[in-house]
Amino acid sequence: MNGTLNNLKVTYDHQGYFVLRNYFNAEELLHLRQAVLQFHYNWQQDNQHFYQTEAFNSSLITGTQYLANTERLQLFNFISSTKMTQIIETIVPHKPAFMNTQLFFNPCTAAQENFWHRDCQYDHDIAGQQQAIKDTQVVHFRVPLFDEPGMELVPGSHKRWDTQEELDVRLARKRKFSSDELSTGKKIPLNAGDLLVFSADMIHRGLYGQDRLAFDTLIFDSSGDFVDYVDDDCLPNQQMLKHINNPTIFNNTLHLKSLNYHNHAY
What we know:
- The protein is of the alpha+beta class.
- It has one domain (2-265): Jelly Rolls.
- The chain contains nine helices and nine strands.
- The protein has a six-stranded antiparallel beta sheet. It has a three-stranded antiparallel beta sheet with strand order 6-5-8, with no helix packed on it.
- Helix 1 (2-15) crosses helix 5 (82-91) and helix 2 packs across helix 4.
């Protein structure tokens, strides 16, 4: 397996993504699906207008607002399972830390189009985005709960700036739309139980259709400046940590939170 893991790291460093097909079995998926569907139902009830008009994702799945601790613990144990952890530690070798979870689904309005983006564009201007792709990047670990059209990615764009075509489309300028086709895009269809690993800062877009419901875990390198993005409510408390089989990625985040608190306190 070590040889395979090394190959995955090389592939990720070069392309910015890889897919492991049929990585999770039916039983693993069943437990994950139960917890996520419970969250999704409760979230929809609470966000009906947003869901019906524009939503295509939700976040903070491991928080306390929509799930009981039983379901939260199911999610924490899935995220930190051996299958997840060995991939996480291969791709983020320096003290990987848990950031957040997200759920991606089809928008209710069929006319709503998907869009090319880099996650960093929502926090940075152009110069900041150019710097972000040179720095430590957040990584998505995506598990589709049902068969779906998947993602479209621009391989290698996690380490290089946009071409003129890519930038015009991504920023929807010069008579371009962010939903336009890109000549550099590569479609990655996904089936239930696959694992797609990709850089948050590569150029990418989700593909709508079928029964799309994808569960993403976001992980960052402890040396990266991302701990302020972590919502405390999404982390396990000390009592819950005792029931998590491998709490390392959560402990790494809690440690960073503690350091951050003491730094701000002084």
